[in-house]
């Protein structure tokens, strides 16, 4: 492909004048190699086009929301039909009831459902419901685990007071002994234990769902009278058509769900078991756009496809093909990859690469060849990805390995300030 970035460079300069930092939040490219585009123009299926009209096979899926493919026809049709009726109204549409019924019918840890906009909304709602239910204060969370960008959980310290986290207690993520110790240390005042289905934080190897940890978390919460909250904002419906811990025989009391349920439309959810219904009814949580009908119509269409299609099996099949192909390529070029976690949410890091110079160079080389990979964040497979797309991806990554090998022999340049900043942020997440 012919690759240019002049339009992106111009937009970044303009943005720097009118947007603090030029861009903010998780979609900022400030810590990525310079070749990564900041601005995009359009998308369809598994393809993404940036502001310079460079085309990419996209393995970030908008950082997760794209489950079925950009502009999925049935979802888009549902969006257009609801737009003809109305979106943000004085009260909710009847589609809200249909969506809640669908979620309760599909998810074993759901006797009721509430809707909001972002993952942070759902996790924050879980904290207040847990406190209302128990009358207790402490919220236990895994150290370095991302639950959103509210003051109680954001990984960035700027503007955050110690009082904002005065009742947040940390344990080692996915470590049953550490969780047991934290519960013992704060017994009698624990409102909730937050967990994720598996380890999936940035800069780190992922894990798989762990039955031992899940069952111990459930046992400890039951013994303490605490609420078990499973944060499935990132993983929901990519691991299972039910809750991520359903196959382990563990039901959380509350489950936060985001990203995928509207296939890119802005909607998230909190679902819960019957004993939490009264507390959920007692808290005041709301937002001007939480009741908008168009995202709910998109979610109803998305959930229908989840129920009735082989989308999950396709995610797993193409994810395995990608993982196996990359492992073979890396070995052939003399590199070792660490590919961890479920294949439908790939995390790809290089062995013996503490400053991530190999990963940064390789990911940037893939981007210039039309494949959008990420050097330190877990990625996502969507159901529009085909075996042909994977084959084209592997052509690009093979060329990226060739370029990396040639540059590695010559001595890779290292952008120290960027790498140092990235490593300092990683240390912050682990603090």
Automatic annotation (TrEMBL):
Pfam short name (any one): Aminotran_3
Positions of transmembrane segments: none
GO function term, MF aspect, one: pyridoxal phosphate binding
Cofactor: pyridoxal 5'-phosphate
Keywords: Pyridoxal phosphate
Keyword Oxidoreductase: no
Keyword Acyltransferase: no
Gene3D superfamilies linked to this entry: Aspartate Aminotransferase, domain 1, Type I PLP-dependent aspartate aminotransferase-like (Major domain)
InterPro entries xref list: Aminotrans_3, Aminotrans_3_PPA_site, PyrdxlP-dep_Trfase, PyrdxlP-dep_Trfase_major, PyrdxlP-dep_Trfase_small
Protein family: Belongs to the class-III pyridoxal-phosphate-dependent aminotransferase family.
Protein name, entry field: Glutamate-1-semialdehyde 2,1-aminomutase
Species of provenance: Ancylobacter defluvii
């Amino acid at each position: 492909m012919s690759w240019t970035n002049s339009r992106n460079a111009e937009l970044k300069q303009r943005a720097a004048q009118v947007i603090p930092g030029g861009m903010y939040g998780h979609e900022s490219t400030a810590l990525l190699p310079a070749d990564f585009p900041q601005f995009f123009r359009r998308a369809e299926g598994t393809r993404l086009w940036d502001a310079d009209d460079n085309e990419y096979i996209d393995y970030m899926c908008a950082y997760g929301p794209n489950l079925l493919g950009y502009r999925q026809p049935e979802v888009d049709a549902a969006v257009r039909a609801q737009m003809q009726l109305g979106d943000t109204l004085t009260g909710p549409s009847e589609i809200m009831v249909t969506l809640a019924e669908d979620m309760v019918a599909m998810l074993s840890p759901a006797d009721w459902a509430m809707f909001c906009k972002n993952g942070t909304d759902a996790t924050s709602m879980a904290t207040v419901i847990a406190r209302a239910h128990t009358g207790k204060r402490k919220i236990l969370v895994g150290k370095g685990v991302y639950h959103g960008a509210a003051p109680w959980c954001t990984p960035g310290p700027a503007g955050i007071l110690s009082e904002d986290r005065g009742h947040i207690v940390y344990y080692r993520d996915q470590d049953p002994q550490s969780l047991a110790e934290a519960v013992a240390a704060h017994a009698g005042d624990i409102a909730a234990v937050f967990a994720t289905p598996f380890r999936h934080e940035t800069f780190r190897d992922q894990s798989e769902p762990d039955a031992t940890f899940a069952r111990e978390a459930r046992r400890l919460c039951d013994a303490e009278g605490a609420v078990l909250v499973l944060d499935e904002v990132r993983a929901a419906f990519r691991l299972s058509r039910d809750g991520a811990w359903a196959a382990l025989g563990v039901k959380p009391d509350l489950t936060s769900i985001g990203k995928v349920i509207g296939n890119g439309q802005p909607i998230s959810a909190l679902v819960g078991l019957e004993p939490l219904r009264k507390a959920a009814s007692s808290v005041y949580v709301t937002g001007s756009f939480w009741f908008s009908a168009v995202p709910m119509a998109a979610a109803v269409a998305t959930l229908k496809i989840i129920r009735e299609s082989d989308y999950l099996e396709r995610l797993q099949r193409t994810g395995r093909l990608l993982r196996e192909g990359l492992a073979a390529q890396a070995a052939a070029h003399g590199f070792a990859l660490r590919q961890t976690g479920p294949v439908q949410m790939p995390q790809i890091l290089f062995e013996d690469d503490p400053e991530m110079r190999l990963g940064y160079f390789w990911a940037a080389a893939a981007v210039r060849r039309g494949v959008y990979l990420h050097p330190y964040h877990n990625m996502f497979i969507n159901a529009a990805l085909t075996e042909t797309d994977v084959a084209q991806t592997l052509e690009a990554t093979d060329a990226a390995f060739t370029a990396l090998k040639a540059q590695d022999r010559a001595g890779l340049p290292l952008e120290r300030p960027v790498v140092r900043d990235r490593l300092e942020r990683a240390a912050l997440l682990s603090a």
